[in-house]
């Protein structure tokens, strides 16, 4: 590119030099030369009149368009042509001919003014060529850069497309894997659920049976203690100490109230008690032996600062944990665990077979989740690649 410009520049310079050599009147351009034929009548270029050749450039304006005085300042509308070899030719108004100011770089406008003009055409031409070269170079670099960008974008698009293709294939295979692992997981979870449900059901049945047995034991114990005369029957009078069973809110249990509790009978045997009396009174009922134990005696302290009352009072102390011995009977004096204590019991660990099924299902779940995670990661990556590809396509 640079070489081409240089060659063209040189060629122009050479042409310019030659143009100066072509004989023609002063101030006439090369293209107008043919209108000024030496020693032949001259016709003004607007065709308005024809004059003898010696009136061309005779410093007197003859043509209305000023064309007979291309090399003098005689016509106010005349134009002087500078050839400016080495630079570019130009016209200046005739009024600037010999006005003492250098207008043409080849100095030809000041041929008779005494002004000392320097020919600066070559220098100006050189500068202009340099400017042009610089611009050409910048344009070339710009074009190369643009091509580079285009190429990079094309490569980027291709890479993204290839990547997308790869990801799509990988996704397909992972999806197949996920489907298979889901089926395996579901197959493993079915027996797991059945075994776990069976385990839970057995435990609940056991717990219910235990609760019922405890309830029965507790009512038996209560009956034995209430039957103060040991005749195997509970009478209304044997209940009277139990003011906590008061139903009308006067703080004591009357004969009538006691009898109502026994369902109107004067006495009940143990099975009637368990069946119809105990369910009514069990929430309120307190045994003397149910009182909570005394707190441990602190060292060096004689007294029991907060010893709970020995006798039954208004306190609700159904769930005492331990107590002092006051009876030499069997363990009936010890309150059995309450229903809620039984219910709070934790389910026993799974048996080996159930645990093996749980472990197998857990392993299948983990494998499935792992594969699913891979699938989600591939989807995320694909979304990113598609976004970048779209950006490249929009550039
Ligand atoms: Ca003239
Ligand atoms: Ca001048
Ligand atoms: Ca009795
Ligand atoms: Ca009462």
Task: Give an account of the 3D structure.
- It contains six helices and six strands; from the N terminus they run αββββαβαβααα.
- It has 395 residues and is mostly helical.
- It has a domain at 2-119.
- A hairpin with a 6-residue loop joins β1 and β2 (50-51).
- α1 (2-21) packs antiparallel against α2 (121-226).
- The relative contact order is 0.08.
- Residues 96, 99, 101, 103, 109-110 line the site of one calcium ion.
Biggest sheet layout: 2 strands, antiparallel
Low-confidence stretches: 1-20, 299-334
Identify the overall geometry: rod-shaped
**Can you list the strand order of the major beta sheet?**
1-2
Beta percentage is under 5%
Radius of gyration of CA atoms, rounded to a whole number: 62 Å
End-to-end separation = 29 Å
Order of helices and strands: HEEEEHEHEHHH
Given helix and strand content, the structural type is mainly alpha
> Into which percent range does the helicity of residues fall?
40-55%
Query: Count of DSSP helices?
Result: 6
Query: Ions, cofactors, ligands: which are bound?
Result: calcium ion
- Mean pLDDT across every amino acid position: 85
* Secondary structure tally: strands: 6
GO molecular function, one term: calcium ion binding
Protein name: EF-hand domain-containing protein
GO cellular component, one term: glucosidase II complex
InterPro entries: EF-hand-dom_pair, EF_Hand_1_Ca_BS, EF_hand_dom, Gtb1-like, LDL_receptor-like_sf, PRKCSH_N
């Amino acid at each position: 590119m640079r070489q081409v410009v240089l060659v063209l520049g040189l060629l122009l310079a050479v042409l310019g030099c030659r143009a100066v050599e072509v004989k023609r009147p002063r101030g006439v351009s090369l293209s107008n030369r043919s209108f000024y034929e030496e020693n032949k009548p001259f016709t003004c270029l607007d065709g308005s009149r024809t004059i003898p050749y010696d009136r061309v450039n005779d410093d007197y304006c003859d043509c209305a368009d000023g064309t007979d005085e291309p090399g003098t300042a005689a016509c106010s509308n005349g134009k002087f042509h500078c050839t400016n070899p080495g630079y570019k030719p130009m016209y200046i108004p005739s009024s600037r001919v010999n006005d003492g100011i250098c207008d043409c770089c080849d100095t030809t406008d000041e041929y008779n003014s005494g002004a000392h003009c320097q020919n600066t055409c070559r220098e100006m031409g050189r500068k202009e060529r340099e400017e042009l070269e610089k611009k050409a170079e910048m344009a070339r670099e710009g074009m190369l850069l643009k091509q580079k960008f285009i190429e990079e974008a094309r490569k980027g698009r291709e890479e993204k497309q290839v990547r997308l293709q790869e990801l799509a294939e990988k996704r397909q295979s992972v999806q197949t894997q996920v489907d298979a692992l889901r089926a395996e997981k579901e197959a493993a979870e079915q027996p797991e659920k059945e075994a776990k449900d069976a385990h839970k059901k057995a435990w609940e049945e056991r717990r219910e049976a235990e609760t019922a047995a405890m309830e029965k034991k507790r009512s038996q114990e209560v009956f034995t203690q209430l039957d103060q005369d040991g005749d195997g029957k509970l009478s209304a009078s044997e209940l009277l100490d139990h003011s906590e069973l008061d139903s009308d809110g006067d703080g004591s249990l009357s004969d009538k109230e006691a009898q109502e509790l026994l369902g109107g009978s004067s006495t009940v045997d143990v099975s009637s008690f368990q069946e119809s009396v105990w369910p009514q009174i069990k929430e309120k009922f307190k045994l003397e032996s149910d009182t909570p134990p005394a707190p441990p005696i602190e060292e060096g302290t004689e007294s029991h600062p907060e010893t709970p009352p020995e006798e039954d009072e208004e306190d609700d102390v159904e769930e005492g944990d331990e107590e002092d011995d006051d009876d030499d009977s069997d363990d009936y004096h010890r309150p059995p665990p309450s229903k809620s204590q039984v219910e709070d019991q934790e389910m026993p660990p799974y048996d080996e077979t159930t645990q093996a099924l749980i472990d197998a299902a857990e392993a299948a779940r983990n494998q499935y989740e792992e594969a699913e995670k891979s699938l989600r990661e591939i989807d995320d990556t694909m979304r990113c690649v598609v976004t970048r590809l779209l950006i490249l396509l929009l550039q």
